[in-house]
Amino acid sequence: IFKIKAVQLAEKLLPAFNTPTGIPWAMVNLKSGVGRNWGWASAGSSILAEFGTLHMEFVHLSYLTGDLVYYKKVMHIRKLLQKMDRPNGLYPNYLNPRTGHWGQYHTSVGGLGDSFYEYLLKAWLMSDKTDHEARKMYDDAIEAIEKHLIKKSRGGLVFIGEWKNGHLEKKMGHLACFAGGMFALGADGSRTDKAGHYLELGAEIARTCHESYDRTALKLGPESFKFDGALEAVAVRQAEKYYILRPEVIETYWYLWRFTHDPRYRQWGWEAALAIEKYCRVSGGFSGVKDVYSSTPTHDDVQQSFFLAETLK
Questions:
Q1: Alpha helix positions (H), 46-187
Q2: What Å distances lie between residue 272 and 251, 262, 283, 290, CA to CA?
Q3: CA 32 to CA 131: how far, in whole Å?
Q4: Which residues does the annotation mark as catalytic?
Q5: Pfam families recorded for this chain (predicted)?
Q6: CA distance 254 to 241
Q7: More exposed terminus of the chain, fewer Cβ within 10 Å: N or C?
Q8: How far apart are alpha carbons 215 and 222 in whole angstroms?
Q9: Which pLDDT tens digit goes with each residue over 76-105?
């Protein structure tokens, strides 16, 4: 029954790929098949983390059904991306599905970019390490990320910035904290004996993200945090001080615990679990909090779907 339902859903999603380039729309009307993009996304561009995070599911659906149509749709996306020029070797977050050109040159390992990189690595792993194309794209991407986006702060914290309008913004989002686990997961099989290097890089990202939690009143991390001057790993703007039950930091602890068995990662995970229990549990479930630096938090009254799907898992 689940296979039947998966096929029914996929068939309803296929019209999203009916664009001049084959890069799918962000949204599709399931009744009419008409697709569209968000106006705010660099003048109606498609988003890297959206069209780049279909690959594993569509490949697997072709494997389950024997119907290659799904596989072909996502392989077309990959081939198109491989042919394109990338500024500094980095993938911009926006691609126009009408013209096939990049939108604004904004590159992020956090929101809008994140899961594209995760899926390159996992496509290689799911193929029993036979999808060498995916591994090469992953290796090339993280080399460019390390060269242009990863920096060490004055206080010695390694962070991943965002490339915006031709310069590096010294700010890291909670979403980008997943990359610590990704670097650790990708260490085995990396180029020229760099496995130790990537495991260490993953550990450094984990330490930075733990600091973002530790430097708050609630011991829960903010949505994003800066590395400007004296302030490090703390949110500056009120609009970035919320915690909405996100999984990325805990996910990185989990991967690093599995790969190193260093007890600090279990300790850090337990700290987060206790803080969620103490500050986020409400009568009807769990809620996000609006300011992690306030010892008397206000709840946002939302239990995000990813709290069950990812954070607790």
A1: 48-51, 55-65, 69-83, 114-126, 132-148, 179-187
A2: 11, 17, 20, 17
A3: 36
A4: 223
A5: Glyco_hydro_47 (PF01532)
A6: 24
A7: N
A8: 10
A9: 999 999 999 999 999 999 999 999 999 999
